[in-house]
Specification:
single chain; alpha/beta; Rossmann fold; six-stranded mixed β-sheet; three-stranded antiparallel β-sheet; 5 helices; 28% helix; globular
């Protein structure tokens, strides 16, 4: 699906990692973890072509369609949830209103709420961000600290969603300090000592 080849990333004199090589395959559920500032979000932005690596390259299969929640997702703040999701959907496809409505209901959101996104709580915005990352049937989904601001019920919905995506053969990478031990990862990626190490076992950092 996607392969990182000899990737390094450096900001001025700060080297995050170097000589990173690993492959992401169809249907995998992966946990990415590391200390604050280790470069988890940066790695996601490199995969999404938002940032360029200092060295190395990424090769993708033609059918890879990426959805992502990275940091504080940007929305059109003075517009509604319907306007925002429809706008994002229509950039690449034709808006599937019933599908998006169903996803909103799953997270106890009203697609037709007239309130502006600027009035939404952190948790509500996070739900909208999760929805936009999966609503177009994306097959590689990157979640950066996905449960930020979510209440217990919404976290449970999120876990069920991840299990559903995996059953559908989607590939999901979750960057988080939390293990989320309700999820059955295929493997973990640990950012440590300027390397990204693949492991079947979770290690505390």
């Amino acid at each position: 699906m996607l392969e990182l080849k000899n990737i390094s990333k450096k900001f001025k004199n700060n080297l995050l990692y170097e000589d990173v090589n690993f492959e992401i395959r169809d249907g995998e559920l992966i946990h990415l973890f590391g200390k604050n500032g280790s470069g988890k979000s940066t790695l996601f932005m490199i995969i999404c072509d938002i940032l360029e690596p200092t060295t190395g390259e990424i090769s993708r299969e033609e059918n890879v369609k990426i959805g992502a929640v990275i940091g504080n997702s940007g929305f059109i703040e003075n517009e509604t949830i319907l306007y925002n999701l429809k706008y994002l959907y229509n950039l690449k496809g034709t808006f599937d209103e019933e599908k998006v409505k169903s996803l909103c209901e799953m997270f106890s959101l009203d697609l037709y709420n007239k309130k502006k996104l600027s009035t939404y709580s952190v948790g509500m915005r996070q739900k909208v961000a999760i929805i936009q990352a999966i609503m177009e049937d994306q097959n590689l989904i990157l979640f950066d600290e996905p449960t930020r601001g979510l209440d217990v019920d919404a976290i449970d919905v999120f876990f069920k969603l991840i299990k559903k995506l995996k059953k559908e053969g989607k590939t999901v990478v979750i960057a988080s300090h939390d293990l989320y031990d309700k999820l059955d990862y295929d493997y973990h990626l640990l950012i440590k000592n300027e390397r990204i190490v693949k492991s079947k076992k979770y290690e505390k950092v």
